[in-house]
Specification:
The protein has 6 domains: 48 residues; 93 residues, no CATH class; 74 residues; 233 residues, Ribonuclease H-like superfamily/Ribonuclease H (Nucleotidyltransferase, domain 5); 69 residues, no CATH class; 81 residues, no CATH class. Helices cover 33% and strands 16% of the residues. It has 20 helices and 20 strands. A 6-stranded antiparallel beta sheet has the order 15-18-19-20-17-16. It has a 5-stranded antiparallel beta sheet with strand order 4-3-2-1-5. The protein has a 5-stranded mixed beta sheet with strand order 10-9-6-11-12, with helices on both faces. A hairpin with a 2-residue loop joins strand 18 and strand 19. Helix 4 packs across helix 5 and helix 17 packs across helix 18.
Length: 683
């Protein structure tokens, strides 16, 4: 048999007049596979003692399985020729032709028991020459060695499989210059291929001399530039080009999480929809969302006018940790009880889940943020720290570190925004003619929240698949139900008191008239024990801690420093306002009063102005308001006309801002710009 004491995987043997290959050795059991692929098991002792057993040898270094996929890249004629070579070589080794029955014996001229290997090789070379092949005995021997080392792939003419160079036969100096020029315009505005050609010519002349390196024709050069710049966005989006260049050279590892809340990504972007803001001016709002990586659940979404503040991020965090209630008009099919989540078991933990919408409460363990000032502010970091949430900043200018939340923004744009009236498109090139705002900010927010519960949370997501059902995608709600059962995740939502802790705070005294904040007076009977008394907090000069919601100023909450309980205090002119209003709406109303020369500290007058702004927002955008608002932000310009006396202004006239600004063109009082990072310190 051989000088070796045992068989090895890959050895070829002849048994029962058939050629076999050893494919597995397990103890004293040998698994064989014949030429047809049929497997058989035989004891090693029985194999060695069987009459007619013959050891044929080992194909050293060759793979057990031939690279069949590579044969698909070979021209059909070459593949057929390699298959013919394989049949002749098998006959050369075993003496039998492929396709002949097992009972047939070997051809006499190729019988291994009669003729030596050299004789069989010479016979095969003569036979192939008779068939018209140009071969010699040396050629047959060389093909036999290649077949033993590489299988069928070794019989292919590899001159037919050579890969062409992407840059063709271009001069290497020209290729290097093109690559250098393309790398040098990474931070520049996108240009044309003509600019690249001019810079390459200048670079080659500087390094090698004028005319030393011949430049290819324009068509050939442009093909070369296409080959070198492939995948770099050299002539596309400048933002995509910079983002692609910042990617690490190593293997890309996507963000992954195995349980709800393990990693939550948060970000802010302008929404591609025009809305009617509370001052009647149309504009694009900003959307801040938090997305759970494990379930793709949109944990919370906050829609605000342009200029998101740190308090908005804190409110988003608070909103994540409380159940989303079913809003008026929502069907019962959108309730949490209608999903696959263990609603009955979760109801024992928090009774509020009985009327919760079909969006799970997810407590974050780690929140991934970018370096926006809203998310790195002290207010947001302190809110996360108080809740035991870790903050994980991404690398600067690397949106791929938050790929999931970025992709969610794109999905919201295609699945929601483009179907909403007032859709603007992602840029001016995609914007239609005559796009106007139709929905108010509050109405669009209600639509968005309902879409998240009814569509996003119920829609199958390609990135959510169970290992037990890999061919079927799951919705975020289904993924949450699966992970809750698998990981034993139990959410503990925030209580109403915890929610108040996350609201911004100011420190005020409690007087006979109540509490004064930005010329608004808050009062209630429960403040009686606190009036004209110090809080006992010496660090704040005896003032009382007051928390407020900057997007609903109709009430505030005062903490009793002695009992640690909260007192809800309403605004004294709350009955004059038909809907909740924000702090920027209050400041806008005061600016309009000051613009008309009236007292902007009169609460009743400001309340009337706020109500009129809210009514205007409901009726639609006022183009004159928008124009005058932009004009108010510009510096005053000298004019020749004298201002109209204030006494001539008709006090009975409605709040027509255009008239007011037209009558006092040289005395425009610009309203304060909404500061996104003051955290309410202007109150």
């Amino acid at each position: 048999m051989s000088e070796r004491a045992a068989l090895r995987v890959g050895d070829q043997i002849r048994l029962d007049e058939r050629l076999h290959t050893v494919v597995e050795l397990s103890g004293t059991v040998v698994r064989l596979a014949d030429e047809a692929g049929r497997a058989s098991l035989v004891l090693l002792a029985h194999l060695l003692a069987t009459e007619g057993f013959e050891f044929l040898g080992q194909r050293d270094g060759s793979p057990v399985v031939a690279p069949f996929a590579l044969l698909d890249t070979v021209p059909p004629q070459e593949a057929e020729k390699a298959a013919a070579w394989e049949q002749h070589l098998r006959e050369l080794e075993s003496g039998r032709q492929s396709g002949v029955g097992a009972g047939a014996g070997p051809r006499p001229e190729y019988d291994p028991t009669v003729h030596t290997l050299e004789q069989r090789i010479a016979t095969k070379a003569a036979e192939l020459r008779a068939l018209g092949w140009t071969v010699s005995a040396r050629t047959v021997e060389r093909m036999r060695a290649r077949y033993r080392d590489q299988g069928v792939w070794g019989l292919v003419d590899h001159r037919k499989t050579r890969l062409s160079s992407p840059t063709g036969r271009a001069d290497e100096r020209v290729v290097a210059a093109v690559a250098e020029v393309l790398a040098g315009q990474l931070e520049e505005s996108t240009g044309t291929r003509g600019r690249v050609r001019r810079r390459v010519e200048a670079l080659l002349a500087e390094r090698h001399g004028t005319g030393v390196v011949p430049m290819p024709s324009k068509t050939t050069f442009y093909r070369l530039v296409e080959a070198v710049s492939a995948g770099t966005h050299a002539f596309g989006s400048a933002a995509s080009r910079r983002s692609r260049a910042r990617r690490p050279e190593g293997m890309f590892t996507p963000s992954a999480a195995c349980r709800p809340g393990e990693l939550v990504q948060i970000d802010t972007t302008p929404l591609d929809v025009l809305v009617i803001l509370e001052d009647g001016v149309s504009g694009r709002p900003e959307l801040t969302i938090a997305v759970d990586v494990a379930t793709r659940t949109v944990c919370a979404a906050v829609l605000r006018p342009a200029g998101t503040k740190a308090v908005d991020a804190s409110l988003l965090l608070a909103k994540m940790l409380v159940p989303e209630p079913l809003r008026p008009g929502w069907p019962e099919a959108l309730a949490l009880s209608a999903t696959l989540s263990p609603h009955a078991r979760l109801l024992d933990i928090d009774a509020r889940l009985e009327q919760a919408a079909a969006k799970p409460v997810i407590i974050p363990e780690t929140i991934g943020i970018d370096h926006g000032k809203v998310f790195v502010s002290d207010a947001f970091i302190a809110a996360c720290r108080s809740l035991g949430v870790s903050v994980q900043p991404s690398r600067p200018a690397t949106p791929t570190d938050k790929a999931i939340v970025e992709r969610t923004f794109s999905s919201i744009n295609t699945l929601f925004c483009q179907h909403v009236s007032g859709y603007t498109g992602s840029n001016t090139d995609r914007r239609g003619a005559g796009v106007e705002a139709v929905w108010t900010l509050a109405e669009l927010d209600d639509l968005l929240q309902k879409w998240i519960v009814a569509c996003w949370q119920q829609r199958p997501h390609d990135g959510l698949r169970s290992p037990f059902l890999p061919g079927q995608s799951m919705s975020p709600n289904d993924a949450y139900a699966l992970l809750v059962a698998r990981t034993g995740y139990v959410p503990l939502p925030l209580s109403g008191l915890d929610y108040l802790e996350l609201l911004p705070a100011v420190w005020r005294s409690v007087n006979d008239y109540g509490i004064r904040i930005d010329h608004r007076t808050y009062n209630c009977p429960e403040l009686a024990p606190l009036r004209r008394r110090p809080s006992g907090v010496d660090a704040k000069g005896g003032l009382w801690e007051v928390h407020y919601d900057p997007y609903n100023l109709s009430q505030v909450w005062v903490r009793d420093a002695r009992t640690r309980e909260w007192i809800t205090v309403s605004w004294t002119h709350r009955h004059l306002i038909s809907a909740p209003f924000a702090d920027f709406t209050w400041r806008r109303a005061r600016d309009l009063l000051a613009l008309r020369g009236q007292d902007d500290t009169d609460q009743a007058a400001v309340a009337a102005a706020v109500e009129q702004l809210l009514v205007r927002a409901e009726s639609g955008p006022d183009r004159r308001v928008a124009a005058r608002t932009r004009a108010a932000l510009e510096p005053p310009r000298p004019v020749a006309a004298l201002p109209t006396p204030a006494s001539e202004i008709d006090e009975a006239d409605e709040w027509d801002e255009e008239e007011a600004t037209a009558d006092t063109p040289s005395n425009v009082i610009p309203f304060g710009v909404f500061d996104a990072f003051t955290d309410g310190s202007r109150l």
